[in-house]
Amino acid sequence: MPIPGNPLGYTLVYAVESPKGPVLIDAGWNHPDAWEALHGGLGSLGIDIATVRGVVVTHFHPDHAGLAGQVRETSGAWIAMHEADAALVRLMHGLADGEHRSFQADMLRRAGADPAEVDVATAQRPKPPAPPDRELRDGDLVDLPGRKLRAVHTPGHTPGHICLHLEDADRLFTGDHVLPDITPHVGIYPYDRDDVDPLGEFLGSLERIGDMGPLDALPAHEWTFPDAAARATEIRQHHEEKLTELHALLAERPEPQTIWEVAAMMTWNRPWDDLSPMLRGMAAGEAAAHLRALEARGAIRRVSGGQPVRFQAIDS
Question: SUPFAM superfamilies, from UniProt (predicted)?
């Protein structure tokens, strides 16, 4: 399923057969090209989109949930997602564009972003996905007659991200949680929250996938691969190394650093100066998640008083 104008390129959407009609795992980006690709892909399998029974969304992001509403309108299918992401979708539908831009701008300013970047980064907002009809919790079986498709709550990339274990075939639909070559974005929004630890949750979720054994992985991007557990272990190690490097960088700075300054000093897939304002905003969210994980471990502290918020390594 193409994602026009996005470097990821495409989302992999899966159709799981059942005697009462197929259930889709994710639905793709809300765009005419993606809708055409969905029709064509299902048609090549002999599936009429009007027979789709339901859509299970691994998480609420637009490249996964975008077309779920259109599938529902066409086939009468239900839409299911984890209750934590369902709550976020309801929140997004309740925010006017002006409120959302104001929220983003305030968040960026508190992180130490340049005012010019704030204006550019808040210019666009994707349309929120369709609200789900059904909400899932960890361990729930999806309504898929004759099959066993179980939700595995794997928070981190989003609060309600789920993987889906097809128990009758020993396969794991991993969404964005475990990808074969890249790692998913894990950020905090707003950046300066101190009541959540999404990276800590993500690392715990990876450990849980590691305990499930060498299941065949069917991810939402890149390609299918064997042994989801081994890849989950690799991703955990990657983030532990990143946390160690970040702590060392902060220890070298005599003065507390803003989230924006920390993001600029971290290593990304391209130099900081080459990142667009939108990508810098995402990098800041990921930097914030790493800072929060270090703070939760007692390795750094946030300096109280004033804005933007700043962080400093704790002397050992």
Answer: Metallo-hydrolase/oxidoreductase (SSF56281)
